[in-house]
Every structure is written in C-alpha cells, then in structure tokens.
Amino acid sequence: MEPEALPGGACSPARGGSLSGSSGCCEEHVACLGPEGDTCACRDGAFVEVEPGDNQGFMRQEMVQREEAELRRSHQKPRSPEGWGLLLLLWYLAFYKPIITESHLRRKNIEFIFIRFSAWQYAGCDKLWAGLVTTLCDSIRHHFGALPLSVYHVMGTRPRFASGFSQKEWVLKTGTCLKLWGMLFVLGAGVTILLVALLVPGIKDHHALKVVGSAVTSLSGSGLALGAFSILKNLLISEKQKIERLTNSEKFTSQLGFMSKVRNEVEVLVDFLSFMEIFERRRLRVVLEITSLDICYPEKVAGVLNAMNTLLSEANTPFIFILAVDPSVIVPCLEQTGCMKGLADNGYLYLNRTVTLPFSIPEMGARSRLRFLEAAIQTREDLMYRIITSNVERRRAKCQAVPAVPSREEADAEAVRCIHAAFRCLHDGTDPLARYLPTSGAHVRRIVNTIPITLRLLLHRSGTPGTPSPRAAAAWVVLADQWPCRLSWALQCLEDAWQSRPTTDFGARSLWSIFQENVGELSSLRQPLHNVLSLDGDPELFQTFLASDFPFTARDARAFLGVTVNLDHSIRHKMGLLRGLDRLQKATATPVSRSVQCPHPE
What we know:
This protein is mostly helical and 602 residues long. Helix 10 links the parallel strand 9 and strand 10. Helices cover 58% and strands 7% of the residues. Strands 7-5-8 form a three-stranded mixed sheet. It has a three-stranded parallel sheet with strand order 6-9-10, sandwiched between helices. The chain is elongated and about 120 Å long. The N and C termini lie far apart (63 Å). Helix 15 packs antiparallel against helix 16, helix 16 packs across helix 17 and helix 18 packs across helix 23.
C-alpha cells in the first residue's frame, strides 16, 4: 500500500501528540515541507495525517479524545466563557489572581484556535509582518470576545507559578478588594454628606459641607469612572486598531520603541491566554496557518519570518505556526533581500534555524495521482457534493459508534512496537547509531519526532507487519538529518540510474558506491551548491556511516525515498536540474569532426 498524498502538502500538528496515537513524539516547535518542496512548518507539535479538504479534522478529533481522557482522570469539566461562564470569568478577572499549579501542568486536554493568514492579502501594505500580528490579535479577540480581553487589560493579573505543591488555582486580590471597598465607602460617605448638606434643614445653609461632600464624591467616583472608561476604551479600540494606527503614523520609520509597543500588545495576549488556560481548565494553542508567502516580494518574506521569530522568542508561547511555502522560492528571497545581508547570505541555514522541525510530505503515488485527476475533471458542484456526503458518512459512523477495525488496532500495536525498538537503538550506547546523533538539541528533537512517522509510513506502504527494520529506519532518519546535501545527491544519481533501466543486479549495489561513482560531478557543481553543502556534517563520518556501519543498498534507498519526510526534496530537484544542464553543456561543447559534419561522396 502507498501512503495517500495530501493536496498542497496539508498537514496537521498536535502538541505532545503523535501520528495516529503513537508514542515517542516530544513537544516541539514544528515545520513541514509539502510535495515537490512545498512546505508546512509548525511550532509546538507533532504531525497527524489528515484527509483532503479537512486540514483540521484530526486535530479536532484529538481535542475530543484528550478532553474525554482528562475528564476521566481529574473529574473536572472544562469551563466555557459563554453565558453564566462569562459572568464567572469577569468575576475572576476582577477579584482573583491565577496560579499555575502542578495539577494544571499535568493537564493533557487541549483546545486549538485556528487562524488562517494569507500573505498575498497583505502583500500590498508596507509592513506585511504587521498584518500577521494584527490578524493574530483580531482573531483571539473574536474568539474570546472583546469584553473579557478589555477587562483583562485593565484589571487582569499575569499568572504566576505556585510556591509549593498547593492545588489552589485562584487567590483573592486582597489589595484590589480593599481599594474597591475603600472607594465605595468613601463614595458612600461623600454622597451621605452631600445629601445631608442639601436636604437636612438647618444644615443645608452651610456651604462648606456641600463643598466637602461634592469633593469627596467626585474624587471617589472619578476613580471608578476612570476604570470604567479604560474598559470602555479597550472595548472600542482593539489591539488591531492600535497597531494599525502606529503603522499609519507619518513618523513610523523613525518612531522609537515601535516594536516594543507591538511586543507589549502581544505579551498581553500571551498572558491573557495563560489566564484563560487556568479558567477553562485546558491547554490553549493558537494555530496560525501562513500561506501564499512564496508569491510575495523578498523583503516581505523576511519581514514575516522576523515576526514569527519575535512572537516565538519567549520560551512558553502558546503559538503553533504552520508555514506553507516552497523552499526553492523562499531561499533565494532570503538571500536577495537587502535587510538581511550578512544574516541570510545562506538562505538554507537561516530557514533551518527558523523552522524547528522540517517535514517533507513524500511524492504522491499512482493511486493518489488518479484521485487528483478525478478531482480535476469534476465540476465544482461534484466536489462540493462529495465533501457533503463524506461529512454525512463521518457523522453517521460517529453516531453509530462503529468499533475500531481489528486489523487497524493490530497495525497500530505493531507500529508502537517498532517505534519503541527504534528508540532503544538510539539509547543503546553500544550501537554505532548512537555516535552519529547530533549534538544540537533541536536536531535531536527533529529525529525523535520523525522516526514514528517514517516507521508508520513504512508499515502502511509495505502492508506486512515486521517488514521494515526499526534500526534501519532510525539510521535513515539520522542520515537525512545530518547529511541532506550528500544524501540528496546520491538519491538523485540513483533516480537517474533507475530511469535509464539498469541491470537486474543494480538494486544490490551499495548507496556509497553510487555516491563515490558520481562524487566528481558533485565536486564540479560545488559552486552553485555551496549553500546546500554547508548543511552537511562531517564528510568522513558520512563515509563511515554508509560504507561500514549502515551499508544501505540501492533497493533500500528506493524503498526509503517514498517515506523520507525530513529531507527537503527541493534540494534534490535543484541537483537534477543542475546535473541536466551540466550534461547538456558538455554535450554541446563536444567537438565534431568536419568529416562527420560534411561527408564527401566518393
């Protein structure tokens, strides 16, 4: 069986989750590449496969499953800021301080807030990254409502960690309560004095008493009125309008502290989301899908990536970024933009540091191509009808509580066994694979998140449990992570050889021998591939890896190519183009004798 390719490289991240429920994926900032180099990048999560046209379906399904599991564990129902819950939320905002307790950190239920940002819609504005920030602020405001966010701006308190193992999540704001009761007492006293001075006979002629009563009433009432005015101001003027007002200012280019003001607005949103996590008794993650970035100008591309880095600069930000781009387009944009000279001379390195977990969806197989061909020849009404019928069938199956297919449960158990076996190889200090693990924590987390997906795709494609070797799959993932350029070159040479119909014993040839045979050609192309070559690790370790420790054959490499998800396939496509042009140039430069050009008849 072949894995179903997804349209446009669609993928879905889930924090702390795994592919179809497997274990082993750690919480991570994530990114993924789509077919033909299309990328999906995401933060704080692992990936689950989704059906065409339903990019959020499995994420919502995971939300429901985690909600049910958390309810069985803690017996606490989550709150909702609607109806009576809104009044309770306003009460907590005004008079209580949230505390991050151990029980809150153990909660596994999660809610995803989906936000879609099309960079093309903001391509005409001067600051594309400002459109990203304003979309984020406006979507969060619409999700929770303007009133809770406005009250938080004025009276909200940033959550703090518990000092011990106390399970108390809310602490009364003693100072706020004393101030409020004091102001109400003074206001009542002032109103009483004023009424006495105005209504009681014999006293109402005293002008001084009226002045004192009026002054006390005005001062105490002004404090309450000022708080109400601040709430009303934040209710009418949203964070989006504040940022747009700053960007529209004539002094925008020279305005000091502009980014500081924008960052303050974002920090308020982050603190508000932390507050709502404790109130709703669940984890909150904002999933921001960024599309159409590869059709914008280079400066705007760099600006959006800078905005992403700004939003993710804090350690515990609740943002997940899904970045859908073509790296073969984004990399030249980063290298051409003038504002990043010296920082992004190598676009691959910059993208590698910005995107924490690159994820490349394999090329589609024959069955997926036929499915897309069928969708292409259908009318718009047919496609809509198919979506409606699939939704009806999904709801019907959910209502009937169809039990899981035993074969699927067996396949899932086999996948979990293989994943655990692969991780044991990584932990085994006597295994040669352990010494090839990178020293960078980010790369280690990439490998840990990629191994479960690779194994599941191998099992799904083979259809025979136990066929793929977990150790070999883990080694292949490490190989793709540590030497993406040299592996891409070997795979490109292998693909060209397969297309030329080699001999039957070609599949038994080692991948290292194929690389050695074509390494001279790679050396001649080192100038256009200089930036890509800088991604590779130690060349001597690469030789030891393929020549002795893990001698993958051409047949093994071809089997792994369809499930390699942590390798940027646009690099291989670029190599294929350069190789074809180089061969064409050599063929054109080959001298032809005159006798061959103009043969003379005898």
